[in-house]
Amino acid sequence: EYSYDVSATPLNVYLDANGMATVDPNDLVQSVDEACGYTITAGGTGGGTNGSLSTLFTSNNGGSAGWTVMYDLTVGPNDIEVTDIDVNIDGTTAFNLDMYILVGTYVGNELNPGAWGAPVASGTGTGLGIDMPSNAVLGAPVTLTANTTYGIAIVTDSGQNYTNGDGSNQNFSNADLSVSLGSAVAGLFSGSVFSPRVWNGTINYTVSNGTTLDFTCADLGENQIEVTVTDDSGNVATCMATINVIDNTPPVLVCQDTTIELGPDGTATVDPNALLASMPTTYEVMVIGSDNASGNEGFTDFTVNVTEAANVTFDWDYTTNDIAGFDSFGYLLNGTYTELTDRALGNQSGSASIAVAPGDVFGFRSQTDDNDFGNNETVISNFMPGFSGQFDPANWSLTLTDSDGDAFFTEIPGGPLSFDACGITVLAVDVPEVSCADIGTPITVTVFASDASGNIASCTSVITVVDLLGPEITCPADQTVDPGQGNLFYILPDYFATGEATAVDNCTDPVTVTTQDPAPGTPVPDGTYTITMTATDEYGNTSTCSFVLTVETVLGVDSNSLDAGLALYPNPATNMVNLVNKTNISLEKMMIFDINGKLVNQTDLRSMQGEKAVDVSSLASGVYVVQIIGDNASTVKRLIKE
Q1: How far apart, in whole angstroms, are the C-alpha atoms of residue 105 and residue 149?
Q2: pTM over 0.70
C-alpha cells in the first residue's frame, strides 16, 4: 500500500507568447509514500457508474449497470458540431454508444439522473481490440454552443468495455476518449477537423511519468485533471488536481499612419483595424528545374522583358540528381545562354550580377543533356531589385523546349503584424470620429487592444483627414425658351444666381466657386445648346452637370406668312446669296449677325422686286443669323457661309 498528497491550491500555469504551456504530472503531486517503484499519470476522468445512474445508463448496456466515461468540455469562441467519437474498448465486434450531455460540469452530477436526462445522440461502430481507438459515428450531429461548459457521459453496451489506452486493460478507469468534429456551425473552425485539445476540457490528457501535459489558450481558467499513481505491482490511487491556466502576455500592436476620407455628411468613423499595419505579400524566391528523360538536350527557360535599366544580382543554389558533366544552370540575355554552374561538379551554389537595359530579354535556364539519370533544380534567392515592378511574377514567361520542367515563385503571404496568441477581443481608438474641422492638421490616434484575459496594449497612428468628394450639383431640367418678341437672340441667364442650378458640399458651405458654359450674358440665336454647370469646393474637388437648352422663336400670324414666303439660296453660300420674296409684303432690310450677335452685314430691301442678290464674300466661314424685316413683320433665317 502507499499514499500520496495533492496540493489543494490550484497550480498556476502561464501561457507563453505562442499561447502554449506544459506541465509535468509530477508537479501535481506533493509527496508519494511508496516502498516500490511507481508511475504518476494524469488524464481524463473515467469510471463505472453506480447508484441511481445505473438505471439511467442501461439503455445501451443490455439492462446492466452502464459503464461510462465522464468528462467536461468547454467550447471555445465558436459553435462546434460533434459527428463521431473514438473510444478505447476491449472488443472486436460491433458496439452501440449513447452520448449524454448536461450544461455545466459532470462533477456534482455523477449520481443525478435528473441532470443527465435522455441521451442526445446514439452511435454505432466496430471495436478494434484492446487499447485501439474505435470509431462510433453518431446518428445525428450534436451542436455544442460557444462559450458553454458541458458535462458529457459516453456509454457503451455491456459487450464492449472501456480500456485506458496504456496496454494494461484496466476497464472503466481513466479510459481514453476523443471527439471528432464535422464542419463547425460557424466561424473559425469551419470545414476542419480538430483534436479536442483545441477547447478547454480534461479529455485526452493521459501521459506517463516524465511526459508533459500541454495547455493552450483554449484551456484558460481552471482545469480539473485526474492524477493517477500506479505502483510497479499495478496498484492504483487517483485524485483530482486543479490547474489554473493563465494568459498574462499582452497583445502585440503595430500601427501605421493612414489617410481617412470624409463621407458625404462630412464625417468619417475611425476604424481601429485600418490603423493596424500589415505586411504585404512578397515573392522572395524563384525555383527553376527540368527533367526530360528523352535522350535529347532540353531547356526550361523563364524570361522577362526589361523596360528599365537595372543591375540584377542574385544567389543561386543548384541541385542535380544526374551524374556530373551533363546538366547546367545559368542566365539568358537576349537569347545568349551563360552557364553559372560547373558541369564537372554536382551540387553547387554561387552569386551573379548582370546589367540589363530597356529592350533586353533577361531570364534563367535549366539545361539538361539527356537526363536519363534524373533532374536538376535551382533555387534563386536574394534577387535584386526584387520581384516587383518590371520583374513582377506576372511578367515572366515559361518556355519548355523538350523538357517537362517548371519554374515558379515562392510566395511569402502577407498579413497583420498585430496579434495575440489567445486572440484580441477588444479593439478601440481614442478618436472614434473625424470631421471637416480636422482637415489640414495631422491627428495622433491611440489604438487600444485587450485579449480575453484583460491584457492590454496600445500603439499610435497619425491620420490625415481629407475631403475628396466634389460638391453635389443640380442642373435645371432640359427646357425650351423664346427670345421674346422682336429679339433675335436669347440672353443666357446666370443659372446659379437664379437658383435654377444649385451646389452643396460636405465641407464647403456655401459653394462660391461656380462656372457656366456658355457664360451668363451670352446671346444665342435659335438652336439647341448644351449648358454645362461646374462647382468647385475649397479643397479643389470639382463636379459638373449639364442640361439641354432649346432656343425657339415663336412667330406671330404675320411673321408666319413672311417666314413661309422667303427663301435664301444657295445655302450654304460662297460669295453671293439670293433672297427670294414670294409674298406681297414689302421688305425693308436684311441684317446678318454672327454667332456672337454682332451685326456684320446690312442690306436695304426697299427697292427689291421679287429677288435680290446679296454679296457675302467678305464674311468668314461659319454660321450666321439672317433677320429680314418688312411691314411690321420679321423672320429669322440661318445662313451657312462656306
Answers
A1: 7
A2: no
